[in-house]
Design goal:
heterodimer; A: alpha/beta; Rossmann fold; about 55% helix
Chain lengths: ~600, ~350
C-alpha cells in the first residue's frame, strides 16, 4: 500500500470534514447565521447535482425549477394531504426526478444550444405555473404552515437539528459524487463529455446515461427544495425562479464544476461575498444596495477570469490525483484474447455492394469485401478515395445509401453502443481520449461493457472487486503497447504517437474479435511504428482479425495478409501486397498517368 | 378578426424590437462564443441615455465611457511591445473616438429636445461601451469555456444593472414617441410609433446584412465566426473582431431600446426581459442565422401578444412552453451545427 491517501479516501475525509465543521457551526451559531448556514447547504446540495450535470457535458439553465417542484410537492403533500413528513419529502424528490424524466425524454433529441434553451424555458415556465395554479399553490404569495419534519421518533422541528441533517446530506452527496468520478460510471460520464461518438463505441448507451444524470441532478435539486420547505415552513415561487437558477450556476462555476466539492465551495463563497458586502458596503459605509450588486459582479468577473476553472482549480493541486496500482503479475486471471468459440467463425465482417452519396456527391459505389478470422486486411487508396467513409459504415457510425454490412451474417445492431459486445472495437483517425482522465482510466474505459457496477455502487465504493478486475485488464493492455510508465499521466499530456497507442490499448481491453484501426501510424515515430507492427502480428496470433486504414505503405505492406485498394469511391484492386504493388492500375492511381 | 389583426400588429412591433436584440446576441455569439446574458442591459442603457438627453441633461453614461476609453489608451501606450508609429496611430484614433463621443453628447445636450441628435448620442455612447466590456470581461481569459463566459456575462449584467441604478436612479422615465397618432391600414389602426419601429428595425437589419455580406470588415467578422484559428492565420485580429462584434451588438441593442422606450417607459429594469425574449427568438432561429432569427422573434412577439390578450397571468407560461415544441420541430427540420473551432 502507498503512504499517501487515494483520491477516494480524500473524498471521504473531505465529506467528513465538511459535515463536522457544519455540525459544529449549527450548534453554536446565532439564529440569523444558522439560517444562512442552512441556505448555503441547500444551495450546495442543488449545485452539486448541477456540477454532475455539467461534467457530463449538459447544462440546465433552469435548475431551480426542480427545487421548486421538490419544495411544493413536499409541502403540499405534508400540509394538505396529511402525508408523514419524510414520505412527503421523498415524494417531492420523486416528483422532481419524474419531471426531469419527462423533460429529458421529450428534449433528448435536441442538439447544440437547443437543449440549454429548452431547460431555460422549463426554468421560466415552472415558477410561472406555480403562480398560475393559485388554488393549490397559493399563487405569488405562496403558503406557510408547513408541518415540521419528523423522521420516526427523531424530531427535527428544531432549526439546529434540521441544519445538521441538511449538511449531512450535503456531505453524503458531495463525497459520494466525488468518489463516483473515479468509478466505472464516472469514467463513462467523463467519456460522454469528451466525445459522445467515442463513448458509444466503447459501449456506453449515451442517451440513457445523459437522461439518468439529468434525473439524478434534478432529484438532488428536489431534495434541496424539500429541505427548504421543511426548514422555512413556508414556500413561494420566487426562490425557484430564473434568478435562483442563475445563482445555482454561479455557485457551480465560481466554485469549480470539476468537483462536487467545488459546488459546495461555490455556495459558501457566494454567501460569504454577499455577507461581506452587506456588512462593509451597506452597514459600515452606508452605500445603497446597487453598489453591492456592482461589486459582486466585479468579483465574479475577476475570480473567473483569474481562475476559469473556479476556486476549486486553485485548490486542486492539493487534491490527490487518481492512482491505480499495478497488480502482481500472477494476480489477474483475465485474458485479453477472444474466446475459442468466437475465434473460428469465418467471414466476420462482410460489406456487400456498399454505396454512399452525400447529396449529389457519390462518395462510394459498389464496395464489396470481407474480413475473415485471424486476418489482417489493409484498406488503402489516395486521399479522397472513400476509406474513412467505408470505415465509418463498417462500424455503424454512418449509414450507407446502398448495400449491407453484416457481422457473422447478421445486420449491425441498431445501437452503436451494442457493437462492442459483438466483439468489434475501433480507433479514430482523430484520436479521441478523455483529456482529464489518466491514461490507465482511459484504457479502462474499453472494459466498460465487461463491468456492471451502477452509479450507486460507485458512490458507495461497493465496486472494489470489479474495479480491481477492470484495472488488471487495463494494465495488461497498457503493457502490450508498452506504455505502463505513463499510466498515471493525464491523457492531455500525451504525444500524438502515445495517444494513438493508448487508443489501441483501450480497444484491446474490450477483447475484440475484430479490431478496426483508422490510420494508427499517423504521427508515430519509427520505433512506435515497429511496435505497432509487432502488436498487430501478436493480435492475429491470439485470434483477432484487423482491418486497417493506413497511409504508411511500408507499414501496411509489412503486416497485412490482403489489401483492398479504393480509388474515387470504387474498388480498384485487391490481393496480396505483392500483387497490389505490381498492379498497373494502382500505380497509375497513386502516381498519376 | 379586428382584434386578431390588432394583436398581430402589436406582436410584430414587439417582435421587431426583440429582433434587434436577437441580432445583437447572434453577432456577439458567432464571433466570440459568448452567450451574452448582459445583452439586454445595452437596451436599457440606450433607452435611459436617450431619455435623459431628451430631458436636457448631459447624460451620465458619457463620462464613465470616455474615462474607460482614456484609461485603456494609457494602458496601451504603456505596453512596451508596441512600436512608436503604432502608438501614435493608436493615440490619434482613440483620441478621435473619445472626442467624438464627448462632442455628440455635448451637442445633443445643448440642443435640448433634438430627437435625432439624442438618438445618435445615446447609440454612439452605448456602442462605445461594448468594446470596453469585451476588453475587461472576455479578453483576459481567451481559453475559458462557454459556460464560464456565460457566468462572466452574468457578472457584467450585475455591474451594468447596478451602475445604471446608481446613475439614473430607480424612477422610470417617460420618452415621447416619434410622432403622435397613427394611420388606419385597412381595418386596423397602426400608430406611427409602431410603423416607425418596424421600418427602422428592418432598415437596421438590412444595413447589418449589407455590412456582413458586402464589406471587407463584415466578411472578416464572418471569417472569425466560422473559424477563429483560420481567420487569425489570415491576419484578422481576433481581439479586434470581438471588440467590434460587441460594439455592433451594443449599438443594435441600444437602438432597440430607443424604439421600445416610448412604449414601456425607460427604466433600469427593462433590459433583462427584453434580452431574454431576444435570446429565445434568436435561439429559435438557430442563433447563427439572421433571417430565421427574425421569424423566431416574430413568433415570440405574436404568441406573447395573443397570449397576453387571452390569459395575461399565464403569458410567460405559454410563450416559454411553446418554445419546446418549436425547438423540437426546428431540431427535426435542421439541427444546429457546431462551427469548427
Amino acid at each position: 500500500m502507498t503512504h499517501s491517501i487515494s483520491n477516494k479516501q480524500a473524498a471521504l475525509l473531505a465529506a467528513c470534514g465538511v459535515f463536522l465543521v457544519a455540525a459544529l457551526l449549527a450548534g453554536v451559531l446565532p439564529p440569523y447565521y444558522l439560517t444562512l448556514l442552512v441556505t448555503v447547504g441547500i444551495t450546495a446540495l442543488a449545485a452539486s447535482g448541477l456540477a454532475l450535470l455539467l461534467s457530463s457535458g449538459q447544462v440546465s439553465l433552469g435548475h431551480a425549477a426542480y427545487m421548486g417542484i421538490g419544495a411544493y410537492g413536499s409541502a403540499i403533500l405534508a400540509r394538505d394531504h396529511g402525508f408523514p413528513t419524510p414520505v412527503a419529502l421523498l415524494a417531492g424528490v420523486a416528483a422532481a426526478a419524474f419531471a426531469a424524466l419527462v423533460v429529458g425524454s421529450v428534449t433528448r433529441g435536441l442538439k447544440g444550444h437547443f437543449l440549454p434553451l429548452a431547460t431555460l424555458a422549463v426554468g421560466i415556465a415552472t415558477p410561472t405555473a406555480l403562480i398560475g395554479a393559485s388554488s393549490v399553490t397559493g399563487g405569488a404569495s405562496g403558503f406557510g404552515q408547513i408541518p415540521a419534519l419528523a423522521i420516526g421518533p427523531l424530531d427535527l422541528s428544531s432549526e439546529r437539528s434540521l441544519a445538521i441533517l441538511v449538511w449531512l446530506l450535503v456531505a453524503i452527496a458531495a463525497g459520494g459524487l466525488a468518489r463516483f468520478q473515479s468509478s466505472r460510471m464516472g469514467r463513462a460520464v467523463a467519456a460522454l463529455n469528451a466525445s459522445e461518438q467515442m463513448a458509444q463505441v466503447v459501449g456506453i448507451d449515451t442517451p440513457r446515461l445523459k437522461l439518468s444524470i439529468f434525473v439524478i441532478a434534478a432529484a438532488l435539486a428536489g431534495l434541496a427544495g424539500g429541505l427548504y420547505a421543511f426548514y422555512f415552513r413556508f414556500v413561494s415561487p420566487s426562490p425557484f425562479s430564473l434568478p435562483a437558477s442563475i445563482n445555482l450556476l454561479i455557485a457551480c462555476i465560481l466554485g469549480g464544476a470539476a468537483s462536487p466539492f467545488g459546488a459546495v465551495l461555490g455556495a459558501i463563497a457566494v454567501m460569504a461575498i454577499e455577507i461581506f458586502l452587506q456588512d462593509v458596503l451597506a452597514r459600515k459605509l452606508g452605500l445603497p444596495g446597487h453598489v453591492e450588486m456592482v461589486v459582486f459582479g466585479a468579483v465574479l468577473i475577476g475570480v473567473l477570469l483569474k481562475w476559469p476553472g473556479g476556486i476549486w482549480s486553485a485548490l486542486a493541486r492539493f487534491w490527490p490525483s487518481f492512482t491505480a496500482l499495478k497488480p502482481n503479475a500472477d494476480a489477474g486471471g483475465a485474458e485479453l484474447t477472444p474466446s475459442a468459440a468466437e475465434r473460428h467463425k469465418p467471414h466476420l465482417l462482410q460489406l456487400s455492394g456498399i454505396g454512399k452519396s452525400f447529396g449529389g456527391l457519390q462518395a462510394l459505389a459498389d464496395v464489396t469485401f470481407s474480413v475473415g478470422a485471424r486476418e489482417i486486411v489493409g484498406l488503402i487508396g489516395p486521399n479522397g478515395a472513400g476509406k474513412s467513409t467505408t470505415f465509418d459504415i463498417a462500424t455503424g457510425l454512418t449509414q450507407p445509401t446502398a448495400g449491407q454490412v453484416h457481422l457473422d451474417g447478421l445486420a449491425l445492431p441498431a445501437k452503436l453502443s451494442q457493437l462492442v459486445e459483438l466483439g468489434v472495437a475501433r480507433t479514430f483517425q482523430h484520436v479521441k481520449l478523455v483529456p482529464n482522465l489518466s491514461v490507465i482510466e482511459n484504457v479502462a474505459l474499453g472494459a466498460y461493457r465487461q463491468g456492471s457496477s451502477g452509479m450507486l455502487a460507485g458512490m458507495a465504493g461497493l465496486d472494489r472487486d470489479e474495479e480491481a478486475a477492470t484495472f488488471a485488464l487495463a494494465w495488461r493492455a497498457l503493457g502490450i503497447v508498452e506504455l505502463e510508465a505513463l499510466a498515471s499521466v493525464p491523457a492531455s499530456l500525451l504525444t500524438m504517437g502515445q495517444a494513438r497507442l493508448v487508443e489501441v490499448a483501450r480497444a484491446i481491453v474490450s477483447r475484440p474479435r475484430l479490431l478496426l484501426l483508422d490510420e494508427p501510424a499517423a504521427g508515430l515515430r519509427t520505433g512506435e511504428k515497429l511496435k505497432l507492427v509487432g502488436l498487430l502480428h501478436r493480435l492475429r496470433r491470439s485470434g483477432t482479425a484487423v482491418l486497417i486504414v493506413e497511409h504508411d505503405m511500408d507499414l501496411v505492406m509489412n503486416c497485412v495478409d490482403r489489401l483492398i485498394v479504393l480509388n474515387r469511391g470504387r474498388d480498384l484492386a485487391r490481393g496480396t501486397p505483392d500483387e497490389v504493388r505490381a498492379d498497373p492500375q494502382v500505380i497509375a492511381a497513386y502516381l498519376g498517368t | 378578426m379586428e382584434t386578431a389583426l390588432f394583436l398581430l400588429v402589436d406582436g410584430i412591433t414587439s417582435g421587431a424590437v426583440y429582433g434587434l436584440v436577437a441580432l445583437s446576441l447572434i453577432i456577439v455569439y458567432t464571433v466570440t462564443r459568448v452567450v451574452n446574458i448582459a445583452q439586454g442591459e445595452y437596451v436599457m442603457l440606450g433607452a435611459l441615455s436617450f431619455a435623459s438627453t431628451l430631458q436636457g441633461v448631459f447624460q451620465p453614461l458619457c463620462m464613465p465611457v470616455a474615462g474607460a476609453l482614456a484609461a485603456f489608451v494609457v494602458v496601451d501606450l504603456l505596453n512596451r511591445h508596441t512600436g512608436r508609429a503604432a502608438k501614435l496611430r493608436l493615440l490619434a484614433t482613440r483620441a478621435a473616438w473619445i472626442a467624438g463621443v464627448l462632442a455628440i453628447n455635448y451637442a445633443a445636450y445643448r440642443s435640448t429636445g433634438s430627437y435625432w441628435l439624442a438618438a445618435l448620442a445615446s447609440v454612439a455612447t452605448t456602442a462605445s461601451l461594448g468594446p470596453i466590456v469585451h476588453r475587461v470581461s472576455v479578453e483576459p481569459a481567451p481559453n475559458a469555456s462557454q459556460i464560464v463566459l456565460l457566468i462572466v456575462s452574468v457578472g457584467v449584467y450585475m455591474v451594468l444593472h447596478g451602475t445604471a441604478a446608481m446613475l439614473w436612479g430607480t424612477e422610470p422615465r417617460s420618452v415621447p414617441p416619434v410622432a403622435d397618432g397613427g394611420v388606419a391600414i385597412g381595418p386596423v389602426f397602426v400608430t406611427y410609433q409602431s410603423l416607425c419601429i418596424c421600418l427602422l428595425s428592418l432598415t437596421a437589419m438590412v444595413v447589418l446584412y449589407l455590412f456582413s455580406e458586402r464589406t471587407l470588415v463584415g466578411q472578416a467578422l464572418q471569417a472569425v465566426a466560422i473559424n477563429r484559428v483560420g481567420a487569425q492565420l489570415c491576419g484578422i485580429p481576433v481581439r479586434w473582431a470581438g471588440q467590434l462584434s460587441f460594439a455592433v451588438g451594443a449599438a443594435f441593442s441600444a437602438f432597440s431600446g430607443l424604439l421600445l422606450a416610448p412604449l414601456v417607459t425607460a427604466n433600469y429594469e427593462m433590459g433583462f426581459v427584453v434580452g431574454l425574449k431576444g435570446f429565445v427568438g434568436a435561439a429559435l432561429g438557430g442563433i447563427v442565422e439572421y433571417p430565421t432569427a427574425l421569424i423566431g422573434v416574430g413568433l415570440v412577439g405574436t404568441i406573447e401578444s395573443f397570449a397576453a390578450f387571452h390569459a395575461s397571468a399565464l403569458r410567460d407560461l405559454i410563450v416559454y412552453l411553446l418554445v419546446i415544441p418549436i425547438l423540437l420541430w426546428r431540431n427535426a427540420m435542421k439541427p444546429p451545427q457546431d462551427h469548427g473551432h
